[in-house]
């Protein structure tokens, strides 16, 4: 596309960054975070000299990007895209012309105002370091653009190769091609290496310009590694990623050889956006099925860290088209075109010449229509703009030949001396030429085989206020989900259906046309590119603040010595201890393919040193100990039954008081209502089936829960099996049962809904007070140590911010260490407490206590 750059963007293009004020957008504050941001925005707006002087905002559709504002105060929006909104052309020594780049991404972002925006991207030209590169950099700086220079080889492998032959194809449901030559395999490796290298170059350039507080918005499939690279350099950076193409079904995506690397890298962003809910759902499903992560209604969760995933349908700027249609040159153009095509209906196609746009299918449907309705032959014509795109890629070159062949055939067959059915233009139109064409068209044909959104359909609607022309729209374009009500939807693979749709559109009554147009017009004016950008950025700010708040919940490392002192000083103490992997000695399971839970039970032993420490602690009348475990009652009883401590089995489902506690019996009591367990048998059957398929995994069947554990299996294979197992469970035995599925690091547990350690802890404290008197639960020191899962074990939140002391007590509870993700510790002192992942055997039991 960059090759046919002719016009100067300053004369004939929508504004790409009309931000004379350099201000952030005024979005309606929705919550506390929004209000804070809105305050900041107002501050930055009032500080803006240009705004303060009341300079008019640039006219949409006409203005050039605003000058850079490197010295301006306040956060900026940094848009990082493969391509800058302008592509460079050499004029003369030290002089460069800039041409607006093509495609919906640039059109949409061009319609966005109100941000202090800086662009980072490739300028579409190869230049060695030196005077000319410096001159171009300066020219671009005047448009708030920062170039990332790439060499020809990198662009070929990264852009033509990995981006367009691999990712673009696959994301549009075109299967990856395999060549029998060994060199082809190497090519993919080189392309992948170049893709990573190019992403690193973008990251390096961005980091040279980034200022703390800036919002970084990464665009599209070209830069999927960028969120990870940026976060590695600055963990606090606000990073959003938006995909402009479809995200395919995980069944398609999983064919990609580097599927995991790309997913993991984009997941580092704070917010991930797609055009439609379907694409977002596909992405979440790819993360759950390929990475084994958990999909939630808000996004994807990895060990307690959430990446927000949501749909943000893009739009365009209808006002720039309305303004353009009033210009005298555009009106003259409209008049000329009307005169030229008088007496005939005009159909229009505007596409980059791309396989996904379904241009051959459109032509074939037109041919079919003419064949079936010869009476229309000299009464209708199709203007097809096929903008050259990615001209270096062989598939695009083949498409061009094929398209020309079909056009030639149709024109040869159905044309006459006075009429040419298809006006096919292999060229880029200027914005104002396009406006005129849109305005005189009776029927627009958008026949994409797949399309992220398709803004041409929006633009057509924007220019049809007078005519109320008909939009024939592929059901495979993202736009079908927003403009489907007013358009005639077609399956582009069904040529007969499309031919019928053409007839329907050409003969539709004016009343119906106006009704359909009104429907679509309402949509495009409500869902503009401005709304899209404002919503995304506002959501990104919120998400980032929420993530920071969550991170603050992760306590700092504890100081061991201080913890011991705190323990000594405290008058009353509570120790909440896990069992498995906290008090036990780890053992290597024998290398046999089949393992049974009974065997595992037999090997699992409490570390003798730890046991004697726990014994001493229990003997202390001021220290209360409770062992909190997923294990069943019998195991806990057999191991700790003689000690003067509390036991909570099956994650708090059952509790037993110490044998010596006053009024205590050796009876287990249920902490929550004993649930219906009708589902257990069928779940166990599924688990058994997976045990057979997964060597060295085993099933633990308890009274009210069942666990499939693969900690001794091959971890990679186990993870894949766990993913499959989850699918089986969700669609099978538990689909209507009152259960929770809890995914551990190497296990899957099904348990009654609502059983949680937080709730059980609350019941335990009540039981303690009932047994030992109302003061028994007044602790000055609390330690919780165990390999508790982050998501389901809400012990953390139970203690967090809670003072077990009377309000005037000097000690408040404080969160402790996370020296290992699953190990938590709390203390009642001001200073945090140390607890090592190896358990607390080395330090938690002070000598002489
Ligand atoms: O930069 P190119 O390789 O020349 O390609 C042009 C752009 O094509 C793609 O556009 C997509 O974005 C539109 C706006 O969101 C959407 O309506 C359309 O369906 C997509 O195809 C590509 O995603 C961009 O990155 C390119 O710049
Ligand atoms: O000759 C042309 C053809 C297209 N476009 C613009 O290119 C964009 C195409 O965006 P769309 O979302 O339809 O598809 P994409 O090309 O991004 O896949 C639209 O804004 C068009 O106005 C243009 O400026 N000149």
Automatic annotation (TrEMBL):
Residues 12-22 have a biased composition (Polar residues). Residues 52-64 have a biased composition (Low complexity). It catalyses: D-glucose 6-phosphate + UDP-alpha-D-glucose = alpha,alpha-trehalose 6-phosphate + UDP + H(+). InterPro entries: Glyco_trans_20, HAD-like_sf, HAD_sf, Trehalose_OtsA, Trehalose_PPase. Keywords: Glycosyltransferase, Transferase. Residues 1-10 have a biased composition (Acidic residues). Its EC number is 2.4.1.15. GO terms for cellular component: cytosol. One of its GO terms (molecular function) is alpha,alpha-trehalose-phosphate synthase (UDP-forming) activity. Coiled coil: none annotated. One of its GO terms (biological process) is trehalose biosynthetic process. It holds the Pfam family Trehalose_PPase. Residues 1-73 are annotated as: Disordered. CDD domains: GT20_TPS. It is an enzyme of class 2 (transferase). In the C-terminal section; belongs to the trehalose phosphatase family. In the N-terminal section; belongs to the glycosyltransferase 20 family. This is alpha,alpha-trehalose-phosphate synthase (UDP-forming). The lineage of its organism: Eukaryota, Viridiplantae, Chlorophyta, core chlorophytes, Trebouxiophyceae.
């Amino acid at each position: 596309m960059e090759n046919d750059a002719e016009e100067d963007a300053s004369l004939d293009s929508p504004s790409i960054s009309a931000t004379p004020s350099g201000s952030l957008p005024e979005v309606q504050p929705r919550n506390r975070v929004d209000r804070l941001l809105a305050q900041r925005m107002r501050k930055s707006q009032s500080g803006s000299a240009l705004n303060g002087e009341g300079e008019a905002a640039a006219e949409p559709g006409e203005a050039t990007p605003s000058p850079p504002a490197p010295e301006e105060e306040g956060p900026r929006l940094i848009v990082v895209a493969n391509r800058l909104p302008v592509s460079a052309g050499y004029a003369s020594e030290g002089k460069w012309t800039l041409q607006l780049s093509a495609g919906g991404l640039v059109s949409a972002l061009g319609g966005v105002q109100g941000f202090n925006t800086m662009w980072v991207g490739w300028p579409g030209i190869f230049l060695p370091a030196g005077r000319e590169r410096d001159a171009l950099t300066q020219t671009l700086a005047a448009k708030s653009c920062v170039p990332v220079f790439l060499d020809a080889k990198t662009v070929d492998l990264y852009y033509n190769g990995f981006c367009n032959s691999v990712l673009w194809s696959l994301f549009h449901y075109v299967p990856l091609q395999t060549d029998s030559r060994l060199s082809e395999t190497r090519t993919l490796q080189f392309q992948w290496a170049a893709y990573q290298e190019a992403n690193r170059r973008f990251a390096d350039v961005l980091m040279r310009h980034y200022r703390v507080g800036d919002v970084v918005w990464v665009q599209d499939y070209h830069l999927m590694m960028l969120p990870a690279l940026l976060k590695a350099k600055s963990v606090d950076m606000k990073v959003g990623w938006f995909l402009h193409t479809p995200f395919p079904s995980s069944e398609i995506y999983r064919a990609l050889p580097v599927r995991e690397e790309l997913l993991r890298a984009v997941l580092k962003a704070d917010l991930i956006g797609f055009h439609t809910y379907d694409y977002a759902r596909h992405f979440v499903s790819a993360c759950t099925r390929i990475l084994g992560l958990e999909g939630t209604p808000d996004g994807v969760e990895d060990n307690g860290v959430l990446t927000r995933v949501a749909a943000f349908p893009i739009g365009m700027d209808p006002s720039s088209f309305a303004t353009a249609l009033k210009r005298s040159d555009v009106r003259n153009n409209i008049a000329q075109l009307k005169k030229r095509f008088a007496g005939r209906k005009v159909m229009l196609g505007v596409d980059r010449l791309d396989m996904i746009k379904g241009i051959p299918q459109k032509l074939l449907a037109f041919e079919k229509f003419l064949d079936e309705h010869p009476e229309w032959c000299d009464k209708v014509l199709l203007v097809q703009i096929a903008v050259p795109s990615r001209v270096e890629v062989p598939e695009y070159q083949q498409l061009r030949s094929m398209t020309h062949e079909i056009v030639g055939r149709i024109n040869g067959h159905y044309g006459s001396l006075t009429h040419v059915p298809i006006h096919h233009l292999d060229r880029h139109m200027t914005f104002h030429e396009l406006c005129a064409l849109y305005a005189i068209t009776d029927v627009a044909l958008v026949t994409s085989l797949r399309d992220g959104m398709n803004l041409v359909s929006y633009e057509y609607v924007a220019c049809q206020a007078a005519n109320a022309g008909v939009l024939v729209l592929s059901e495979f374009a993202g736009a079908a989900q927003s403009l489907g009500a007013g358009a005639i939807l077609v399956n582009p693979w069904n040529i007969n259906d499309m031919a019928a749709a053409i007839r329907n559109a050409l003969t539709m009554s004016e009343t119906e046309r106006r009704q359909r147009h009104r429907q679509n017009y309402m949509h495009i004016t409500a869902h503009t590119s401005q709304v899209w950008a404002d919503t995304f950025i506002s959501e990104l700010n919120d998400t980032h603040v929420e993530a920071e708040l969550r991170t603050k919940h992760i306590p700092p490392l504890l100081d061991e010595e201080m913890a011991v002192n705190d323990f000594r000083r405290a008058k009353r103490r509570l120790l909440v201890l896990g069992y498995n992997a906290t008090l036990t000695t780890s053992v290597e399971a024998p290398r046999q393919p089949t393992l049974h839970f009974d065997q595992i039970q037999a090997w699992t032993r409490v570390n003798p040193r730890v046991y004697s420490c726990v014994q001493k602690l229990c003997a202390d009348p001021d220290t209360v100990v409770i062992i909190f475990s997923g294990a069943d009652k019998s195991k806990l009883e057999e191991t700790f039954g003689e000690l003067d401590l509390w036991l909570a089995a099956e994650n708090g489902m059952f509790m037993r008081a110490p044998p010596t506690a006053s009024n205590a019996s050796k009876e287990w009591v249920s902490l929550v209502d004993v649930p219906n367990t009708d589902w257990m048998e069928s779940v166990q059957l599924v688990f058994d089936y997976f045990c057979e398929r997964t060597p060295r995994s085993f099933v633990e069947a308890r009274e009210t829960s069942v666990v499939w554990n693969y900690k001794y299996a091959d971890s990679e294979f186990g993870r894949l099996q766990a993913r499959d197992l989850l699918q089986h469970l969700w669609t099978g035995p538990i689909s209507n049962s009152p259960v929770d599925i809890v995914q551990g690091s190497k296990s899957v547990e099904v348990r009654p809904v609502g059983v949680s350690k937080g709730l059980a802890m609350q019941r335990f404290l009540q039981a303690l007070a009932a047994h030992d008197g109302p003061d028994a639960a007044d602790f000055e020191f609390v330690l919780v140590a165990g390999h508790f899962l982050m998501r389901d074990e809400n012990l953390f939140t139970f203690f967090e911010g809670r003072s077990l002391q009377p309000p005037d007590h000097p000690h408040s509870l404080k969160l402790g260490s996370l020296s290992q993700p699953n190990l938590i510790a709390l203390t009642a002192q001001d200073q945090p407490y140390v607890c090592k992942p190896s358990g607390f055997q080395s330090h938690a039991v002070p000598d002489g206590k």
